Amino acid sequence: MKLKGLALLAPMAGVADRAFRELCLSYGAAGVTSEMVSAKGFTMGDRKSAELLTLSELEHPAAVQIFGSEPKILAKAAKAALSYNSDWIDINMGCPTPKIVRDGGGVALMRDPVLAQDIARAVVSEVKIPVTVKIRTGWDFENINCVEMAKRMEDVGVAALTIHGRTREQMYALPIDYDSIAKVKAAVSIPVIGNGDIVDGPSAAKMIELTNCDAVAVGRGAQGRPWVFQQINAYLNDERIIPNPPLSEIMRVMLSHVEKIIEYKGEYIGIREARKHAAWYVRGIHGAASYRKEIGTLSSMEELMQLVNKVLTNN
Ligand SMILES: Cc1cc2nc3c(=O)[nH]c(=O)nc-3n(C[C@H](O)[C@H](O)[C@H](O)COP(=O)(O)O)c2cc1C
Asked: What is the pLDDT of residues 44-61, one digit of tens each?
């Protein structure tokens, strides 16, 4: 698994689609992961899953991510996913979403490390490309078992681990548990990717310093800020701080991002999916609240261009 740097884009269902992944790679993301796909749905021929797994020529290095709770089905899904041209396969053992947890997938697997290991073993033995796993620190503060999980994964041939420094119970609440990530890194010899609240160069450096992790993954810190990878790379290389782009450049990036979404998904669906991205791009600018309101009802590229003209005139 050859990465282009130290900062990967974290998988984000509903956000990190093809347009966003390509954009983040163009700013220096070290690698990207598809939106998660249900192994069961995918193996049953679900068309939406196949769409979510499709990676373009521009998206490398890239992983496809699968979730589920049955070793055989995950192995079958991993094998089928090979035709989607991914460089490695990632298994989701960290998603806290109630529906997925109820079905025994995502972070629910951290409550059953033996089953989690069976899943990893089954997937590793089914495919020849590297298999990685994404976990959290544990289910709750009383059950922090990421070190045990990590060792079990390493034992069955998992190539690398991403660890989000929170428990399931925490969801997205503070604090990030750097100490548990450090313990995982010390306990295994496979690469460990630290994840959680990385938003710029200094927060990426902090994650690496406090945990000794081999790379980092950035999720929400890249929403509306795909250039964050350039900033992180510059800081990790020589502590250089690259400022955020000027507003005109932010608007240009937003427009080209939304154009790509529309190119891949058509204007009707594309502009609706683009609303959340557009709202992230205007975050923090003067008058953002009223722009966000307008963005919430956008129905064409034309309307978005009018909004951009207004933003640039008023700021
Ligand atoms: C909107 C959203 C969707 C996500 N979807 C996934 C997913 O499909 N698979 C996964 O492993 N993690 C998913 N995550 C978790 C992120 O990959 C990441 O672990 C988490 O957001 C913490 O990193 P951050 O603080 O950099 O955002 C998602 C997070 C968000 C905010």
From this structure: 999 899 889 999 999 999
